[in-house]
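Go through this pair.

…
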Amino acid sequence: MAISRDKKQTLVAKMKSNLENAKMTVFAEYQGLSVADIQALRRLARESGVSISVIKNRLVRVALQDIASYKDLSTDALKGQLLYAISDSDEVAPAQILDKFAKDHDVLGIRGAFSADGNVLSESEVKALAKLPSKNQLIGEVIGQLLSPVNDSVNALSGNLHNLLDGLAEKAN
């Protein structure tokens, strides 16, 4: 069934808005996934603040041409049946979600990504991004590193205090 011109314009406008606000857009080939698999992927993505869009590549190219930072972008990688994982809050979340899902569904193949600054990332670059810790994990690690000296000092002082009290208790007896 053909899509009407109005529906195409609506899809292009929505995709343009998503791409303009996106920190990262990862695209992957999904041929062979069932509707239930795609729904499961969408559910998993939603939990991480990532939206999944299935839209014709031609319409994505039109949306990219309307955005200044993507205007001169090479769209040669946009071939086949692709879905787009888009996040406006986390740069690595789309790559992580698709990589995690692809481990259980080997027909899903990551093909590349568009970064917020208008660069095209290759499949290997996206997979490298997917291996990075999430934003929250990195924040937790930094806080842990910052609090480490404080925790060490508290532990050292509490250990010495226990030894001092134990020594005083022995002297009193």
Remarks:
- Residues 90 and 135 are 7 Å apart (CA to CA).
